[in-house]
Amino acid sequence: MRGMPTATAREPAWKSAALITGGFVALLWVLEIVDTASNHALDAYGVQPRTEDGLVGIALAPVLHFGFDHLVSNTVPVIVLGFLTLATGIARGLLATAIIWVVGGLGVWLFAQPSSNHAGASVLIFGWIVYLVVRGFLNRHTMEIFVGVGVFLVYSSVLLGVLPGTPGVSWQGHLFGAIGGFLAARMLTTRRAGRVGDGDSYRPTY
């Protein structure tokens, strides 16, 4: 006699991470196609510092880009870093992304130069880099430390983008995205209190 399963097995986190990341990248491309077809009407919804209209950019700027060249340069890092952020826990990765999103956008709105317009997924990219590098050491989790070291080796030179320099590049978005990544790693630490070096102190909660 065969019984019916009482519950459906959950999909592995990496599969869900791949689907969510792929869907997000598809959204970025659809929006840029719409933006181009509308003569770049969506560009006005970036973060415009210290203006009431610019507040909407805190929510929308990370999914908008100033042309396909801008989007192409961000696509691969979004795929790689977004997937890694979600792969060890969907809820925790989404919450980390939300923290980066808000801190990055709000920081730009408060501190960037007036009469400027900021958009692009790089605020998330810089946040994810810092989050991935920092979280393993805070959690004392071996696999996350390995991932963080690998991310640092590949993207460490990119982090120089938090410094002023290249005209037309929102270093403020990079800087506050990175700050958001550090705050996310700190706020979402899953290590229980214990002795330094206690490898059994890790307990994922997201």
From TrEMBL:
Signal peptide: none annotated. Residues 57-188 form the Peptidase S54 rhomboid domain. It comes from Nocardioides exalbidus. It is found in: Membrane. It is a multi-pass membrane protein. GO terms for cellular component: membrane. Its main location: membrane. InterPro entries: Peptidase_S54_rhomboid_dom, Rhomboid-like_sf. The keyword Acetylation does not apply. It comes from the Bacteria. The chain crosses the membrane at residues 12-31, 94-112, 118-138, 145-163, 169-188. The keyword Transmembrane helix applies. One of its GO terms (molecular function) is serine-type endopeptidase activity. Keywords: Membrane, Transmembrane, Transmembrane helix. Pfam families: Rhomboid. This is Rhomboid family protein.
